[in-house]
Amino acid sequence: MKSEIRNPKPEETGHASRITHHASRYLSIYAALWKNSVAREMGFKGNFLLWIVVELLWFGLQLSFIGVLYLHTEHIGTWTKWQVVMLIGASHFIQQIFQAFFLINCTNLSELVRSGKLDFLLLLPVNTRFVVSLRQVDLGAFVNAGSAVALMAYAARQLHLAPSAGQVLGFLGLCVAGVAIHYSLMFLLASISFWTVRAQGIVWGYYNLFNIARMPDEAFRGLFKIVFTFAIPMLLVSNVPVRLLADKLASPRPILLLLGMSVVCFCVSEWGWRTSVRRYTSASS
Amino acid sequence: MRKYWHVINIGIQNNLTYRFNFLARAIFGLVPLVAILYVWKAIYEGNGSGSRVGTYSLPEMVSYYVLITMVDALTAVNEDDWQIAADIKDGNISQFLLKPIDYLWYRLCLFLSGRVTYVAVATIPLCLFAVYLHRYFMLPANGTAFGCFLLSTVLTALLQFFTSYAMAMLAFWVLEVSTFIFILYAFEYVASGHLFPLDILPRWLEQALYFTPFPYQLYFPVSIYMGKTSGPDLARGLLIQGAWVIAAYFLARFAWRRGIRHYSAVGG
Q1: Interface ipTM > 0.85
Q2: For chain B, what is the radius of gyration of the CA atoms?
Q3: pLDDT by residue (tens digit) across B59-106?
Q4: In this structure, are A140 and A5 located in the same domain?
Q5: What residue in B sits closest to A193 (Cα-Cα)?
């Protein structure tokens, strides 16, 4: 408001400054949420460390599965052992980044609806989806994402890969698109809690689908492949970034598809969220 | 005895409220399974037609996973351990200390009713799935094998329940038991044959696993059904499984008794 008054041409520069003003306001809110999360996590240090152990254990377990598979074969489609290890690393990385920012918040949404606590968030003078999605940060997930990066680096060495800076940047960009897909779909499912109160089960059910993302895409065929490429694009999320990194891309089409699907998923989830909020009738007394 | 029938009855009604949840869980649970089957199919095709992995042909491998899913639906503990831990943490168990009802049997009844409801709801997707794969699906090796399979499945359910119960008793001492539950679950997941048949592992590793209770939590009944375990091995395996059930039962009782001494009825 103030900047508009001081500004002689409100149409042009005023608009831009309003955006930066908005951005800095949201950044400061987000910084406050981070501070909160750090304080919360440090209250239970032992538990924080144990969760990291749990995640490492599950990560090792997925690797052991691949180890067992490759005891009995040389390749799955054209994917060799270390390429699949890299795929598992990338999939874990994307999943952990998603978990760091969004997962708890998505699973908490049904609790917010059930207890009527959403009222308070709706009344805050910020975008509700913003607060609901980013309220808590899972710090342990960053540590686990680090272990995934270490594994990918090791796999790349085994494959004698030397990716260029462009490939690495592209990989990271595609990872962001992957995180956006996971987040959009999970948030869309969490919005179901406006219809049935116990949506937590559905949200955890979706978590099962993450398993698909770490499997080599060439194993799949038919309807399954179509559904998990074009409707729930799990087969794109980590396969495409790894293909870019490991020189396994024949054409840029999969990249465009992944980027396109991430935009589509985000738009659908925004539409679902808006429709759902309209249905919200507070549960508190 | 009648009071426990009541518990089962109420448990079923309670669980039916969440039937949609159960259905979602059953359907979503099938997706990773289908994915694993695709991966196996690709491996078999890559190795050439008629190839085997360990002792498994492709149809046997598919049957293995379908059977694992079915036994898992019949025997898995899904929320019981969380609920028990929550009961302890929130002080809800105080009322059971005053009532003439035994908490362990009470939870076992709820576990049974949970399984009954889950199976009732999951039957439809599971059967559709089995029909879809009928080309691959094997019948049991013989009548005796099928009988022993059923017996072993019951023992599996009991073993899973008592283990989880004992694990949940940790809530008497620590505030947050979920990490411990997940750590145990991780071991169960891989060592009980959930991810792959244990006999495709290197021989020494498979042998080592048989010194733990894990194979008896899922893999063993399926290996009976498929005729992989028979004769004296079968009899010995059932005895060992029974012994693990008894051991887990006593561990659960022991942990409860020690826990009660430690218990301070928070909020109760």
Answers
A1: no
A2: 20
A3: 899 999 989 988 998 898 878 888 899 888 888 888 888 888 889 999
A4: no
A5: B21
